Amino acid sequence: MIELFSSDTPNGKKITILLEEIGCEFKVTAMDLSKDDQFKNDFKKISPFSKIPVIVNHENGVSVFESGAILMYLAEKYNKFYEQKYRNVINQWLMAQMGTIGPMLGQHHQFHHYNPGKSKFGEERFFKIAKRLYGELDERLAKSEYLACADYTIADIATWPWIARHEWHDVGLKNYKNLTRWYLDIASREAVIKGFDLLKNGSEIPKP
Ligand SMILES: N[C@@H](CCC(=O)N[C@@H](CS)C(=O)NCC(=O)O)C(=O)O
């Protein structure tokens, strides 16, 4: 059984979506970041940077931190959404999410959504970067059904929950035709609907 330590955030939802897609048995241990659950000593043993998500595989005691590493671990273990023949290209789109899309949109959330009015520079900078990312993803999805290839992969699973925060981004998702096509296609998957509702409190996917 897989235990997922997580909160209801895009990085957390990546993992519930993949676990639902795989259909394996798992349980979520909710972490309240506002109450500093992430800094507790026991959690630090499995998460050296005190961040969610982390999984523990109770079959063998293996723990994995960093959402990209968790996706790779589970996809390899269950041999799903990470086809060997596309692995090089899947890795590139997965790393682009981990290194660019997530961190940049995360900063945009900080300035535009949580702290408007505190830094004009920060708001402008990350709004511009968010818009640019939407355009670049749209361009890619004009040429490819999914981010890495013609199949749905862990690169899509990593990126989609960030675009699901489109209301916070204020960029106007529906102006990006290919990104919207991809977003809605993934949003209609049963596992994605279930995985999105990480805390099982009826959370629904925002429409473009
Ligand atoms: N690169 C990490 C980022 C994880 C991350 O930023 N987690 C946030 C929530 S989405 C967190 O745990 N923040 C708590 C903190 O930094 O104190 C990953 O993808 O797993």
Structure commentary:
This protein has 208 residues and is of the alpha+beta class. It is 55% helix and 9% strand. It contains nine helices and four strands; from the N terminus they run βαβαββααααααα. It has a four-stranded mixed β-sheet with strand order 2-1-3-4, covered by helices on one side. A hairpin with a 4-residue loop joins strand 3 and strand 4. Helix 5 packs across helix 8 (177-187). The radius of gyration is 17 Å and the shape is globular. The model has no long low-confidence stretch (mean pLDDT 98). Residues 9, 11, 33, 38, 50-53, 66-67, 98 line the site of glutathione.
Summarize the topology.
Layout: E1 2-6, H1 10-22, E2 26-30, H2 41-46, E3 54-57, E4 62-65, H3 67-78, H4 87-114, H5 120-143, H6 154-163, H7 166-169, H8 177-187, H9 190-196
Parallel strand pairs: 1-2
Antiparallel strand pairs: 1-3, 3-4
Helix pairs in contact: 1-3, 1-6, 1-9, 4-5, 4-6, 5-8
